Amino acid sequence: MDYLVDENEGSNEYEFVVYSIFDKAAKKKSKIYKNTKFVYIPINRNLNKINNFIIKVVRKIFKIELKTLLIREIIKYLRKENFDKIIVEGNEVQILQLRKYYKGKLYFHAHHDAFNTCKINPNKIIDSCEKVITVSEYIKERTLNVCSVKNYDKIIKVENCIDNKVFNKMLYIDEKIQLRNKYGIKDDELVIMFTGRIIKEKGIKELIEAFKLICTDKKVKLMIVGNAGFANETISSYDRELFELSKSISDKIIFTGFIHNLELPKIHSIVDIAVVPSIWEEPAGLVAIEALASGLPLIVTESGGLTEYVNEKCAIILKKDKNLIKNMAKALENLIDNEDLRKKMSFEARKQGEKYGTREYYNAYINALKG
């Protein structure tokens, strides 16, 4: 949504109103926008936890979806406004909750496999939508699988994007030296990076096991960027499992913890190879697009919509089978030992990444809203 709002500042095509939970930093930043009004709704954290707990209990026992505190407040605003269109980001249940109070055009932006996991009849939700905008062909096909024929034309794909101007290694030459010093990375050491949530589905354990097979006699470090709870620094049982697994190579592995999105392009400046080792089906894989823009050779798994964004010129693509760890180790070794291959893949990565700019995204999204 950020990129949509940013690009609209130059195009002046729409007047946006964005409803969101109050955030001090976001509110400060929002003052620069002329074509977008931001409504930040203060939600008591403790009350929100209690309400979310009640929602889960009622859903499990009675199969009923109660409203979140945020959606209750948004409904109050809707009664006073007259919007032409409303876009719901990510929570399909909110479509039906809003439809009771809004008779205009509702759009759902599907970032995940929403309708195959939803407890409500998916067609009841899709019937209430003008369009369902998916982030990949994979999510589109998954949605069509549970969608009635009459709604097929409602399901369209708009590919994700990133800010290509920000993910550019040349912008962070000074930071590169500082970051290598901060993390104890020597000048002659290559850096392999995973970035994302530290959860089993992301395949970090498999990556570490593959790395252990080849790292002993190589000048290389593995950097694990992220944590289990986004900005909330929590140590999960999976974190502890990874720490234990890494003890024997503690001098070759770096756990950064949470890194803010604004700092990620700087981290990319010290990285030579990016790995997206997901063992579940990725809806799209935004981290892969970021790596492309930074010109990083990629190792990825055949995972959902992930492979739609890369090709074999810029990425080594691995099957999620019993040989994944062994094949990942081979791929790592191949890239570590072959500088020419890394350079060729880096060039192709930047070329591929240019397809996913914010302007292209804005045009495609606006066309979806008009169609």
Question: Can you characterise this structure?
Answer:
The protein is of the alpha/beta class. It folds into two domains: 2-161 and 358-370, Glycogen Phosphorylase B (Rossmann fold, 3-Layer(aba) Sandwich); 169-356, Rossmann fold. The protein is 42% helix and 16% strand. The protein has a six-stranded parallel beta sheet with strand order 9-8-7-10-11-12, sandwiched between helices. A four-stranded parallel beta sheet has the order 3-4-5-6, sandwiched between helices. Strands 1-2 form a two-stranded parallel sheet. Strand 10, helix 13 and strand 11 form a beta-alpha-beta unit. The model has no long low-confidence stretch (mean pLDDT 94).
Briefly, what is this?
By secondary structure, the protein is an alpha/beta fold. It has 16 helices and 12 strands.
Q: How much strand?
A: 15-25%
Total number of helices: 16
Could you give the order of strands across the largest sheet?
Answer: 9-8-7-10-11-12
The dominant shape is: globular
For this entry, give a set of tags.
371 residues, 2 domains, 16% strand, six-stranded parallel beta sheet, Rossmann fold, alpha/beta, 12 strands, globular, single chain
How does the SSE layout of this entry go?
Blueprint: H1 2-11, E1 16-21, H2 24-30, E2 36-41, H3 45-62, H4 69-78, E3 85-89, H5 93-99, E4 105-110, H6 114-117, H7 122-127, E5 131-134, H8 137-145, E6 155-157, H9 173-182, E7 190-195, H10 204-214, E8 220-225, H11 237-246, E9 253-257, H12 264-268, E10 273-276, H13 286-293, E11 298-301, E12 315-318, H14 324-337, H15 339-353, H16 358-370
Parallel strand pairs: 1-2, 3-4, 4-5, 5-6, 7-8, 7-10, 8-9, 10-11, 11-12
Helix pairs in contact: 1-16, 10-11, 10-14, 13-15
